Amino acid sequence: MHILVTNDDSIHAPGLMALAQAMRPLGDVTVFAPDRNWTASGHVKTLDKPLRVRETTLADDSPALTTDGAPSDCVALALLGVLSQPVDLIVSGINSGENVGHDLTYSGTVTAAMEAAIWGLPGVAVSLQSPGHAPRLDFAPAAHFAQHVVRHVMREGLPKGLLLNVNVPCLPQAQIKGIQVTRQGLRIYNDELVRRLDPRGRPYYWIGGAAPTGVEEDGTDYGAIMAGYVSVSPIQLDLTAHDQLDRLRAWFKLEEKP
Fold it and tell me: Tens digits of per-residue pLDDT, 226-246?
């Protein structure tokens, strides 16, 4: 089993090393991550500039690869031939901060796992809740549960086009109540526009505001982590609103050609 480990917090992020260490008992591990932080980068494919790949080491002196591309670029580069050994599974994380609800469309952590699904490979995204964007996080509990989830994926497999989005509450491992299989919840963003002037008097803008919250609803990803459970959500890439297809077809059924 060859496991590719990547992230969106950069090759230097402590969550990446914790995840790599948790995956090593499960098979051969290659770490291939961006050389800078791509938080909230979304699903990126770099087409308009060359990508550089270089060898580096993690804080534990283990070898790794890094690139100036995005997290999804790391996956694509690996599968297109930068790695000589075929990849069997992609695990992304451990992200500093939960990825729940609408976060999935922004998250570089999750979209790296989406890239795996596009290639027909199992993908797992792992994130650790960060209340108030806490600067120091203990990634050991999240690494433990990441290994547990990946063991199940290796044993049971995943349907093509499916990925797992795993969110771990920011609690000591002994206080985590267990695992819940959940659906996407509702994220509440508290964004504010901050307008400032540069030294030449020209305006520039920050998207600021308080940290996002969410609706604590049973059965959802946000509800689970707020209740002290690890959330595991099966995510598919088909965004079609299937229940609306017949309704929209009726709009145009008897209409003459525009």
Answer: 999 999 999 999 999 999 999
